[in-house]
Amino acid sequence: MSDFREEEDDSLNALLRPLDEAAGPARRITREKSAAMVLAALEASARAAHPPRRPRGKRPPVWLIAGALLGVGAAAAAVWSFSRSGSDEDAPVQVPVAVDHGAAGRPSEEGVVDAAAAMQAAALGAAGAPTAQEAAPPSVVKMNTEDAMDGRVDSPGPARARQQGPRAVEDLLLKANGLRSEGRWKEAEALYLRVIRAQPSSLAAYVARVASGSLRLEHLRDARGALHQFQAALRLQPRGVLDQEAQHGIAEAHRVLGNRDAERSALEELLANHPDSPLGPSARARVRELSAP
Amino acid sequence: MTSMRSSGSQAADSPRGTEDLRIQAAIQGEREATGALLMTLLPRIRNLVRYLVRGDADVEDVAQEALIALVRGLPSYRAEGRFHAWVDRVVARTAFTWLKRSRGREAQHVDAPVELVAVPSEDALPDEYVHRRHMVTLLDRLSNEQRHALVLHHVLELSVPEISSELGIPFETVRSRLRLGRTALRLLATAEDGGGEARG
Question: Under an 8 A CB cutoff, do A26 and B162 touch?
Answer without folding.
Answer: no
